[in-house]
Design goal:
The chain is mostly helical. The chain has helices at about 5-15, 20-25, 55-70, 80-90, 95-110, 115-130, 140-145, 155-170, 175-180, 180-185, 200-205, 215-225, 235-250, 255-270, 280-295, 300-315, 325-330, 340-355, 360-365, 365-375, 380-390, 395-410, 420-425, 425-435, 450-455, 465-480, 485-500, 500-505, 510-520, 525-540, 545-550, 555-560, 570-580, 590-610, 630-655. Helices cover about 60% and strands about 0% of the residues.
């Protein structure tokens, strides 16, 4: 039998049968049913004047449940009190009167440890040791639950049994139910009478509703913290996953460790495309509920909380724990965190990026936008969906800012971008092994791997899927400089000095990068110069990596280069040739921007000592697979003319051959 079996629990009820019912009450029934037997399991102190008589409790229970015993447990008699009570407790088919009486006695016993003989017998020493003398009635159990790990074995078993029962029917905690009455009436009335953990789950899910008062919120959170101590204290989780736990996570007791064990198993099976998931479907569904609940409050993951306690008091002293606000605060202060806490935050972000539903703040802020844009999107790709729609006119401003914040984080390390990690799995070790050699397990690479892949983009050396992903990152970071961690590292001082006004703009549309390009002569830091030069090179290969130029030349691209692929520098070459040959008339703004780019490329070449980024137009081809220059076109026209002439004259020459 499990450590927390029901038999000790049933001793809760033994006080009901402590004395002979009739003798204590002075009742001598005449006729009718026989008296219940006199039971002398334990003799308590006389009850307080405001508590009901123990004997009266027993008499009422016997009267309310005698028919249920005959109907549901015919093999038992009242002489075996523990067996009777165990049978009644396990039955869902109790009559109304019997069910009410059983629950009433349970509630009353939970309010006062003196009415709980087993708890008083096994826990008197621990009560004196851990619970102050001014502990009010009804709070003794909560005190013992808070110190569960410190209790002696016998007391721990009794408290554990009672906590299991409480998780099944939270109405046993009368003080909590009284405090939570408003939110129960508003949001949980449909499950208020259920005894399968539904009510507590409903209270947790509605912790932040306007009807939730401080007393109820504290009580619900405290019960959640108690549940973390043993997975069996969460009734629905225990019932859904007990077989999976025994099979996959044996000898693990703490709920948080069980959740991590099962979640890791599910994640591994998913990533490896396992033919069959090892965790059962019903357990996976409840596991998701537990994961979402734990993501709301850092205290529900004790090891995480312990690792970051000092950082919380130092960096987030006035931040409330609910709604994942403390976790969000730590994320925003990541560079100032202690090593232990930083490692925890990095691992958390890695999990959240691969499973965005676990990002509590993102899901809360973007709840309506997910319904609008991503209703049919798999949970694994919710963040990708939000990224793709962030510039929509229908996108909520707060959600957009949250998405940008997550993108900034994601670009700090390729491991935080599961799509990039998958599509570039061959390219990363091929081109960026030197960067990987410097990586540590739980710290960011500050965008070095992504920067390395960007360098391969102009020469089209990346695999097709990886190139597509890098193109997307380049285009996004060209619009918003904050998405480029290497640029931030090397150019932060220059941005503050030269482009402060552009950086302060609420909406980023590429103005900061344009400012750096225009002020290339003024930039002093070599690292920043190279960042700008690399951007110029990348925009030469893809005009859409240069948002200002592509916007200025949008009409000309449509009219003169629309049938030319935009990648590999093809559209840029098309515009450059149109500018230099004068064969077509470009828009004035487009002409100006193109001439600016030529000057920038020339200066970048002299400043860095490399060949000009703008390829000369008198070469045979301006770029591999790019449209031919005028010299090339003239040559081709001569070849075609000669070939055509040969074909025309060839029939006439045949008689002479």
């Amino acid at each position: 039998m499990a450590a927390y079996s029901r038999s000790p629990l049933l001793l809760l009820f033994s006080s009901v049968f402590l004395c002979g019912f009739g003798s204590v009450l002075g009742l001598e029934p005449v006729g009718g049913p026989p008296e219940p037997p006199i039971l002398t399991v334990w003799t308590p102190d006389p009850p307080a004047s405001d508590a009901p008589s123990l004997a009266a409790d027993g008499w009422k229970l016997w009267e309310a449940c005698r028919e249920d015993l005959t109907r549901l447990c015919p093999e038992l008699t009242w002489t075996n009190d523990l067996a009777v009570l165990e049978c009644l407790q396990d039955r869902r088919e109790l009559s109304g009167d019997c069910k009410v009486e059983v629950q009433r006695i349970l509630h009353q016993r939970a309010l006062d440890v003196k009415l709980n003989p087993e708890l008083q017998k096994e826990c008197m020493t621990d009560l004196g040791k851990w619970c102050p003398e001014d502990t009010e009635p009804g709070q003794e159990l909560e005190c013992l639950q808070d110190h569960l790990e410190d209790l002696v074995s016998a007391c721990r078993d009794v408290v554990g049994n009672l906590t299991e029962l409480e998780s099944e029917d939270i109405q046993i905690d009368a003080l909590l139910i009284r405090a939570c009455e408003p939110v129960i009436q508003a949001h949980c009335h449909d499950v208020a009478d259920n005894q399968d953990g539904d009510l507590m789950e409903c209270l947790v899910q509605n912790k932040h509703q306007k009807e939730m008062n401080d007393k109820c919120a504290v009580g619900v959170t405290n019960f959640q913290l108690i549940q973390m101590k043993d997975f069996r204290f969460s009734y629905k989780f225990k019932m859904a996953c007990k077989e999976d736990v025994l099979r996959l996570c044996p000898n693990i007791k703490k709920k948080v460790d069980v959740v991590i064990c099962l979640s890791t198993t599910v994640r591994n099976d998913t990533l490896q495309d396992a033919r069959e998931q090892r965790v059962s479907l019903k357990c996976r569904k409840q596991l998701r509920v537990e994961e979402l609940e734990m993501s709301e409050d850092i205290r529900l993951v004790p090891e995480f909380y312990d690792s970051c306690k000092f950082d919380i008091s130092r960096l987030c002293p006035n931040v409330a724990f609910g709604n994942a606000q403390v976790i969000e605060c730590l994320k925003e202060q990541k560079k100032q965190l202690s090593q232990r806490c930083h490692q925890r935050i990095f691992r958390l972000q890695e999990v959240e990026m691969s499973d965005p539903e676990l990002d509590y703040q993102l899901m809360r802020v973007c709840k309506q936008m997910i319904k609008r844009f991503c209703i049919e999107t798999s949970s694994r790709y919710l963040f990708e969906c939000l990224k793709q729609n962030k510039n929509s006119e229908l996108m909520d401003w707060k959600c957009k800012q949250m998405v940008i914040k997550r993108q900034i984080t994601q670009n700090t390390d390729y491991r935080l971008n599961p799509v990039l990690r998958r599509v570039c799995r061959a390219d990363i070790p091929k081109f960026c092994q030197s960067v990987l050699n410097k990586a540590t397990v739980d710290s960011e690479l500050e965008g070095q791997v992504i920067a390395c892949l960007k360098l391969q983009y102009p020469d089209q050396r990346l695999s097709p899927d990886c190139e597509d992903q890098i193109r997307e990152i380049l285009q996004e970071s060209a619009l918003d400089y904050r998405l480029d961690p290497q640029l931030q590292i090397h150019c932060s001082d220059e941005i503050s000095r030269l482009c402060d006004e552009e950086a302060a703009a609420q909406e980023q549309t590429g103005q900061v990068l344009e400012c750096l390009k225009n002020n290339l002569l003024e930039i002093k830091r070599e690292g920043c110069i190279m960042e700008v030069v690399n951007m110029l090179k990348q925009s030469k290969a893809d005009i859409f990596v240069d948002p200002v130029l592509s916007t200025s030349c949008a009409l000309d691209i449509k009219h003169h280069c629309n049938d030319i692929p935009p990648f590999g520098g093809r559209q840029m070459s098309c515009l450059m040739e149109a500018l230099q040959e004068g064969s077509v008339s470009l828009q004035p703004e487009c002409q100006k921007r193109l001439q600016d780019r030529i000057d920038m490329w020339s200066y970048a070449a002299t400043r860095t000592g490399v060949e000009p980024l703008c390829c000369p137009t008198d070469q045979f081809w301006t770029h591999e697979d790019r449209i031919p220059s005028e010299t090339t076109r003239s040559t081709i026209r001569w070849i075609i003319f000669i070939a055509q002439s040969t074909l025309d004259w060839f029939p006439r020459l045949l008689p002479y051959i």
